[in-house]
Design goal:
Six copies of one chain form a homohexamer. With 145 residues, the first copy, chain A, is an alpha+beta fold. Chain A has helices at residues 16-25, 56-66, 114-124, 128-144, and strands at 2-8, 30-38, 42-51, 71-76, 78-81, 83-91, 94-103, 106-112. In chain A, the strands form two sheets. The first copy, chain A, has a four-stranded antiparallel beta sheet, covered by helices on one side. Chain A has a three-stranded antiparallel beta sheet with strand order 6-7-8, with helices on both faces. Chains A, B, C, D, E, F: Keywords: Nickel.
């Protein structure tokens, strides 16, 4: 896996989310931005993209086409992603998926799917955090039995 | 004193230091930038300007002329600035000023003047932090006698 | 106008954009987040909401319902928004709106509408920054004649 | 309530947590730090302190004694803190307190006490997030019956 | 040495310091957090851990057990740590250690030990910055003779 | 190319720009600072330097001499810089250079030279953003014919 980085101090920040969408479309595994302070104290951002080596040319194309950077760099990184399973939980607002992550055979993470919780909160007019809490409670109640 | 604020998400950050210089020229007492996250997760900056009410029109003019904001807000703030005195310290690299701040008659702050320390470091090829340390040591040695 | 603030150190940051959407829906004039460092060095965020005094109760309701804060504060702020006009520019990718801001009768700002530029970029497969540049160029060419 | 602010660009950041502790001791209601960019692009921090007007002199004393600022400003702020109740939940790792916040008679927040969860995690060798999840689950199970 | 990184956008930030303590206990050489902006503009944090390759499994275990990440990555890094010596300085508040760092045989750094300065400040009711200044002055006075 | 990093939590931030200048002088290709949160929640900064391997010793010397860090680390990075050409544009305020960047034979970037635009804005009393806009417009008008 490659980690590509480009420091940008002269781009309209409105473009950031659009650039991120294009990079995910081109096969990037992750895209994130780090606030940095550049030459002469300018507040800039560093674009970070994780991508397979096979996608390097495409990702570079998008970075140069869509941002204002005139250079980028990349480093080799080893990635470790947990095995994942999805499970449905029945809630008062319909079934909602929970993504569970496994490390050495043990479940170490679980997280309600954001999009589905958001949809439930909007449809039923409940606070989003309450949907999250309820999904987590029900998921744990099931796991404990 | 007024604290003026403008959120900016569509300006080339290269302009920040120039904008700051113009605002100080127009009589602003302080100018600083806060990294913020705006609508749709855009990384923006909030320009902050402290200025006397009498300077409001001039400061507003510069903010609208030199940045890309279409609005600003201001709040009333009470400022408390320490009484200050300058003293010279003789160092191996010439005399360097120290700014001392007094609170209720007691010296609570002292700081070597950055510009003079920087100049000494450049002229004599010593690390800047060493100049700072030496000025502080000599200033304290004198104060202790 | 009121500026409401709530410091939050125990909320899942995934919720931020959702909270922002609900606040805009309830009539907030602006919503933004400032990264802060809280007690015991915890990385938190400060939610900031600008709203008319008349909306105070509704905005408070949403802040308490949708975030995990147990307190908020507000200050009075005076806002100055530029008068604005919209103008259409004919581009190779259709007509795109430009928002112009006027200060004391002079146009001091102009900005292509993000959503329309984004749509043009996606539809025609051109870099978004090129759409922006072209809209700005055409707008200025017209204004100069 | 007053919100005091001091911009600091020449202080060893190691001192921040110590300064915060002294301010809480002197009766501050909240203390937090905002990363900012100051004159000449220097990365600084803005100290923020919320305190009753009656504590102004003491809080000022500590700010001037313990930080390197030579000035501060303050604004008046109106605070709204939720009514709070504490409840104990029986867990496999002993009883743990939950702080609940009430807005217009409805419970809108609940949060396990950090210190007690941390102690349980350390004593029993369980992940802290698991303690949190379990306390929240048990609290909600009780509230639902 | 390995640099491990995990991007986290759905964890209660209260957990950060606890996670850091566990990682140091497990043999990490350094732990720090970088504020980042993730997918959909979410304000997240990137956990960074420096550790010997021999500690990789233990450090990974803690990251997956104690944070909410479902993936991490690591890069190889070469570290250069200065040779260090500790020296005691006699102060009005007892002996306080100073850590000196040597580069190519020359002392390039010296820093009073934070914990000891903090203890002296608390015990004697002196400003912490004054303790620092005094320790540095005495250390330099000795070195100059 | 090497990417050197040093985490700093006990340095006066005033020194940052000076340190950057010295590093560029010593042949660094880029220097930038990332705000980070260090042990015990201290707000620190991470110095980042990009430099050729041949410059490693000199860059290390400056980092240890001019900052307060007692360690640094470096990683190998591959850099990709666009081919660049400079072109002059005739403006009402004199000729101003534009730097253009080429990727696979296509111009993907162009940026007016900051220093020249700033000089024009200061000399003629025009807003800097207007100089930028005009240079970009004229550059594009020429490219389109």
């Amino acid at each position: 896996m490659l980690l590509l980085q480009a420091n940008i101090d002269d781009m309209n920040p409105e473009l950031c989310s659009y650039v991120g969408d294009r990079l995910f479309e081109a096969g990037a595994n992750d895209v994130y931005w780090i606030p940095i302070i550049m030459k002469k104290g300018r507040p800039g951002v560093m674009l970070n993209v994780l991508a397979d080596e096979a996608k390097l040319a495409q990702v570079e194309d998008i970075i140069f086409r869509e941002t204002t950077t005139i250079g980028l760099r990349y480093m080799r990184a080893t990635c470790h992603r947990l095995g994942r399973q999805f499970r449905k939980v029945e809630t008062p607002w319909g079934a909602i998926s929970v993504k569970a992550g496994y490390h050495n055979g043990t479940m170490v993470q679980f997280a309600p799917e954001f999009k589905e919780c958001e949809q439930a909160a909007l449809t039923y007019g409940v606070p989003l955090k309450q949907v999250y809490d309820e999904v987590r409670r029900l998921f744990l109640n099931e796991s404990n039995n």
